[in-house]
Design brief:
- The protein is 69% helix and 0% strand.
- With 328 residues, it is an all-alpha fold.
- The chain has two domains: 158 residues, no CATH class; 167 residues, no CATH class.
- Helix 1 runs antiparallel to helix 5.
- The radius of gyration is 21 Å and the shape is flat.
Length: 328
């Protein structure tokens, strides 16, 4: 069981890194650094694909392909592949030790299926030229992988006793809603990022000098089946659509912040959960601060990646809290 738990923890740490690295690749415009999959111009590394990359640069010097972008993209694929192998090992161990494990082999096997689907989404991200719906789904799949690995690791460390769970009964519903709201906000944040709408509003707290900017185009902004930067009909996506995407993310951020403040207050008033309440407040303050800073500082790459990582950290805190109040 020690090896099993160690594998889960290693996969969890790596999954957090892969999600952050994926954000770095996306935000540095390296998502098409290698325009095929799984290799780079049919090669294992960008070094071996140097001639093809040079040829692409000769045709389009400012295009999506460069040596640096190719290495960024392939580094993400290498680490994602290693994560897949770890999860394969977890599924094998989980099946072999299904009678000794806390919850059987269902969750490890589900994780294996999820990581296979993630690999497909990674392929479609490239082959379908960064369609926002595909890239957003890939991000959500990464966050789901982190969440399930954390739940599995917590479960295999042991469950609290019945009396401990009884003290948290009144928190179960509110904690579950908090987790759901954070997941929705991450989806909206992913939609902002994959549509490059992060700077559609450059002032704060208002947007273009108004609390509700006029002329926002929600129809085109939230049409899922379309190409990057285009409407479903193939026209250029209007700027008003980007404003609608960004503004919606801000409004949801306010709702989530107020709700999580209420949840933290209830945790702080519950014996045995004051640490969880403080942890939630810290993660929330960090994420809100990063979000505001990204707007005011015009989206520096490091802060933008940190904001993605902060979303993962906030999600992990909510998963941890839900595990504790439910006893696994």
């Amino acid at each position: 069981m020690h090896i099993y738990r160690a594998l889960i923890l290693a996969a969890l740490v790596l999954a957090l890194g892969v999600v952050s690295l994926g954000a770095y690749v996306r935000l540095s415009d390296a998502g098409l650094g290698c325009p095929d999959w799984p290799g780079c111009y049919g090669h294992l590394t960008p070094h071996h694909a140097a001639d093809a990359i040079n040829a692409a640069l000769a045709v389009e010097p400012d295009g999506p392909v460069s040596h640096a972008k190719a290495w960024k993209e392939m580094a993400h694929r290498y680490f994602a592949g290693l994560l897949g192998l770890l999860i394969l090992g977890i599924a094998a161990f989980g099946w072999r030790m299904r009678r000794q494990a806390q919850g059987g082999a269902a969750l490890p096997l589900f994780l294996l299926g999820l990581i296979v689907f993630q690999a497909l989404l990674g392929m479609w991200t490239v082959t379908r030229l960064l369609k926002p719906m595909v890239v957003s789904a890939h991000l959500l799949g990464g966050m789901a992988t982190v969440s399930l690995l954390l739940w599995l690791w917590l479960r295999e460390r042991g469950q609290p006793g019945p009396s401990y769970r009884a003290r948290a009964d009144h928190l179960r519903g509110v904690a579950a809603i908090g987790l759901m709201l954070v997941a929705i906000q991450i989806a909206l944040g992913g939609w902002v990022s994959t549509n490059y709408a992060a700077l559609a509003c450059t002032d704060f707290p208002q947007c273009h000098g108004a609390w509700v900017p006029p002329g926002m185009d929600f129809t085109h902004g939230f049409t899922l089946r379309r190409a990057l930067g285009e409407t479903a009909g193939g026209d250029l996506l209007p700027f008003e659509a980007l404003v609608a995407i960004h503004w919606t993310h801000r409004v949801m951020a306010l709702i989530v912040t107020l709700y999580l403040l209420m949840l933290a207050w209830r945790l702080l008033r519950t014996p045995g959960f004051t640490g969880g309440g403080a942890l939630l407040l810290a993660a929330l303050a960090l994420q809100v601060g990063l979000g505001i800073s990204n707007v005011l500082l015009s989206l520096p790459l490091g802060l933008a990646v940190a904001h993605n990582a902060g979303a993962g950290a906030l999600l992990a805190v909510l998963v941890y809290l839900n595990f504790r109040v439910r006893g696994g």
